[in-house]
Design brief:
single chain; 255 residues; alpha/beta; Rossmann fold; seven-stranded parallel sheet; 7 helices; 7 strands; 15% strand; globular
């Protein structure tokens, strides 16, 4: 049976790399992003060029009213949901010292990065529970977190808090859903070359050159996609509530 994967924020960057990887492994792909479909025509053409069946659904993960539309359209097209990749996320529009953070910035980041994924995962999990398991598996859910879940950045505290919340979401849903045959895990990227890091390229170029990362290069969206795809493998059925650091070894404490 062909599986179906929802990838939030799948029109570019890490999300697109994950969509391509899962699609190449045989999954139908549903991309859920806030822009119009025309905005992502090149990305969607790339999926078509790889022989991947896809559906594009416009909406925001932060808008809970869009979740039902996403699930309804996915079921209309493909009949089931086997994989959810919670990838969509935002950084603060402006980096500010922790003492200058605004409630508006905090709410915006938390709504997209933590609150939205919580309730989307809740809704998708309910759908997965209605489906007959395949090989004892009802579904795989992967949260794309961040090294910022455990690394302090006082100029973007709201982002760190949101990703720490994502890590707990992984734990909670893994605990709740394990006996149901739904496995929930997290990928924690480090410094990955995406639109989100483009504004601070010089900073990270310097840190890489100075050896802050044992593997001295930028991470790529494909690095993250490989880890996410492993967590979604039909053979990965005795791992839940775990995370993989995809950060060039940045998590290693060194003297």
């Amino acid at each position: 049976m062909k599986r179906t994967a929802i990838v939030t924020g799948g029109g570019r960057g890490i999300g697109l790399a994950i969509a391509k990887k899962l699609g190449e492994q045989g999954a139908n792909i549903v991309i859920f992003s806030s822009g119009g479909e025309e905005k992502y025509k090149d990305a969607l053409s790339a999926l078509t060029g790889r022989g991947i069946e896809w559906l594009y659904v416009q909406g925001s993960v932060a808008a809970l009213s869009d979740h039902a539309k996403l699930i309804e359209r996915t079921l209309e097209r493909f009949g089931r949901i086997d994989i959810l990749i919670n990838n969509a996320g935002v950084a603060p529009k402006e980096r500010r010292d922790l003492l200058e953070m605004t409630p508006e910035s905090y709410d915006r980041v938390m709504d997209t990065n933590t609150r939205g994924p919580l309730f989307l995962t809740q809704a998708v999990s309910r759908q997965m529970l209605k489906q007959a398991p395949v090989g004892g598996v009802r579904g795989h859910i992967v949260f794309i977190g961040s090294c910022s879940a455990a690394v302090s950045s006082v100029s973007r505290g709201e982002y760190c808090v949101s990703k720490a919340g994502v890590s707990m979401l992984t734990t909670l849903f893994a605990d709740r859903l394990a006996e149901e045959g739904i496995f929930v895990n997290e990928v924690r990227p480090g410094v990955i070359a995406t639109d989100m890091t483009a504004a601070v390229t010089a900073k990270y170029d310097r840190l890489i050159a100075e050896g802050a990362f044992p593997i001295r290069r930028w991470g790529t969206p494909e690095d993250v996609a490989n880890a996410a795809a492993w967590f979604c493998s039909p053979e990965t059925t005795y791992t839940t509530g775990n995370y993989i650091d995809v950060d060039g070894g940045f998590h290693i404490k060194r003297l």
